Amino acid sequence: MFSKFLNMDKEKQDRIINAAIKEFAQKGYDNASTNEIVKEAGISKGLLFHYFQNKKQLYLFLYEHMIDILMDKIMEKINWEEKDIFVRYRQIALLKIEIYQIYPEMLNFVKSIYKDSSPAVKIDINSRGKELFESSFNKLFSDIDLSKFKKGIDIKKAINIINWTLEGFAYQMQEKVSSLSLEQIASDKTMEEMEEYLEILRDSLYE
Amino acid sequence: MFSKFLNMDKEKQDRIINAAIKEFAQKGYDNASTNEIVKEAGISKGLLFHYFQNKKQLYLFLYEHMIDILMDKIMEKINWEEKDIFVRYRQIALLKIEIYQIYPEMLNFVKSIYKDSSPAVKIDINSRGKELFESSFNKLFSDIDLSKFKKGIDIKKAINIINWTLEGFAYQMQEKVSSLSLEQIASDKTMEEMEEYLEILRDSLYE
Amino acid sequence: MFSKFLNMDKEKQDRIINAAIKEFAQKGYDNASTNEIVKEAGISKGLLFHYFQNKKQLYLFLYEHMIDILMDKIMEKINWEEKDIFVRYRQIALLKIEIYQIYPEMLNFVKSIYKDSSPAVKIDINSRGKELFESSFNKLFSDIDLSKFKKGIDIKKAINIINWTLEGFAYQMQEKVSSLSLEQIASDKTMEEMEEYLEILRDSLYE
Amino acid sequence: MFSKFLNMDKEKQDRIINAAIKEFAQKGYDNASTNEIVKEAGISKGLLFHYFQNKKQLYLFLYEHMIDILMDKIMEKINWEEKDIFVRYRQIALLKIEIYQIYPEMLNFVKSIYKDSSPAVKIDINSRGKELFESSFNKLFSDIDLSKFKKGIDIKKAINIINWTLEGFAYQMQEKVSSLSLEQIASDKTMEEMEEYLEILRDSLYE
DNA sequence: GATGAATGAGTATTCATTCAT
DNA sequence: TATGAATGAATACTCATTCAT
């Protein structure tokens, strides 16, 4: 399907991918301009459509490609022996920071998929997402040791609280991105603050 | 600034506001069409731009106007005698549901501000948000009784956890909106589930 | 439907119509460029689409409008008392020349409808054509005096021969348009030549 | 000029020709896509433009080549001993039907030349047509026995009438193509009807 | 001879905004 | 105050043609 694209010069490939995920992440599917993408990538109008039938195919390719890379990273970096949910979340957080530093727009793009997704692509994303994303994502928490939670607590709700708290924290950090440098965000101080949140939650939700 | 608009026939005013927030909420800032707005409001193109210099000014006016109305409702409906944070949050949740039932587009509009916010208006919203929204929002929690929290706990972080959890829960509920009716969402069962979350948090974070 | 357009300044209206029928007649529906039309008409891109929803609506409007004008002219100029087919054809020929001199592209446009009609508009034209064009066109020959034809001759075939001959002659004349001026074509010499054809046919097909 | 092409593998040559005349016949010069032609012919884009400088040259080559083949057939099949114009025309009509059944796209292509001919190629076709087509076509009628025509009749005009009538009849038949099968069109009934037209004309124009 | 990546001007249509009335 | 005609840059996408391999 996209073999033509994937067999081309790697450097140009990356220029196109970066330009495209940046544009889509910033403006959403509908408002993303293929004009801007080719300008930023330094290629001609025709070439983009030589590789991708249309804007939608480009978007769906990026979706699958980014998820693939994300999943590969997860499988590679997570220590699956460690069953404690807080340790697992800490690993995921470090992973995110790592990806953030290499492909900063990638996480924004993945996030934007859930935010915007115009009707034009929503159905396709949903059908592909159900197979790919969720199955792999569930794996992240499928083998967690649940015995450490307080007796009587609704474990599903407890996990939700942990999740929402970390999401909220990450979002708060991201808002500072424009003023802070990535280095500062990925610094010890940020990690320390996260640890403090995790500690409060562990004290609260574990036996 | 917008006094010209605010002094006009109230009924036409509302037609314009309703048409505009509906369009913006449904399509986001960039994709919202002023053509659609004037058609829905039953006014001419010229008139819209007579009252509002441009699309952006219209959007920013709506933002401020909606926040104003929201704040008025809050001030009116919150029982300020009650200082317990969990009780306060419960009141806010009920308030949201109440507004949702009366002006469904209004909350969609406010929500859409955070979801989409194209780069074209993001900066303006952020700067005004800091003044308007946060100052009023802070008032919601300025007189909270902090003595009930566990000794030694970082209270700011504890409040964040409560906040993010409720946000996460609300977001989860919203995702069901397309399949569930508003009545079902605002039902006892939803409120019960929220109570369970609040109970876990109170058990965890209070002395 | 097109009242907005028909109520505008007549001179600009005509500039648009002339530019459009010329472009459609020369290049056919698919290849006609709305860019060229607005350039030739001296209006902006937006204005054309302000009056006509899209290219197809413009084409269909022109079709109906041109047929209308053509039919009005026919009803006005034909002497319906005269039942002889050769006299009737002569009147029609004179009529065509007259129209040719006033709206030269109009007849080309009408002719082009039958020649090209891309699949994009064919169905719409056919359905509208059956009502409008054919019913009125049949009227042109509905009250002809058939008693003058040779006994035993197949009258339908005889009329076809007259028709095809005059069409062939007109086509031959048109091919000379690029080299000859309209004045020369509409001259006595051309009419004389046509008379000679009609005379051969009358001698041949009448008693 | 096109010797490079004509010296290549005959089978590939035919694949290209067939793909090209089909595309041109179906869509007309302007809308024919060289992309489609190379896809259908199974060759690369570059190769097409290696043999033919550009789309126009390809079209003009096809025009000349098809006329050549057509003329060869004519020279081969016409009985030149028979000098009667009506008999000659009957032979030509049969010839057309024969070709129609063997190379249906070829006649479609030749026909399409007259129908669509975008301004881009019209001039070139016209100038070449005068040399090629007409010279050969004139041969078809150069040795006709003119002595049978009525005394005093303008023979050139009489021949035109015969020609236009047969053209008109053929065109009328063609319009039925979409609903009728080729077999039905080339049936005895069609030929019979043509005979009736020829008979009327012979009775009218011969002594 | 043969490939197909690459180009950029071209297509129809939209839309915020202006301005004469 | 109110209208809506008019603008032109922007949109996604196509396509004949070139050229390095």
UniProtKB/TrEMBL annotation, chains A, B, C, D:
Domain HTH tetR-type: 10-70
Domain of life assignment: Bacteria
Key words, A-Z: DNA-binding, Repressor
DNA-binding region per Swiss-Prot/TrEMBL record: 33-52
Molecular function terms from GO: DNA binding
One of the Pfam families matching this protein, by short name: TetR_N
Keyword set includes Repressor: yes
Annotated protein name in UniProt: TetR family transcriptional regulator
Organism from which the protein derives: Peribacillus butanolivorans
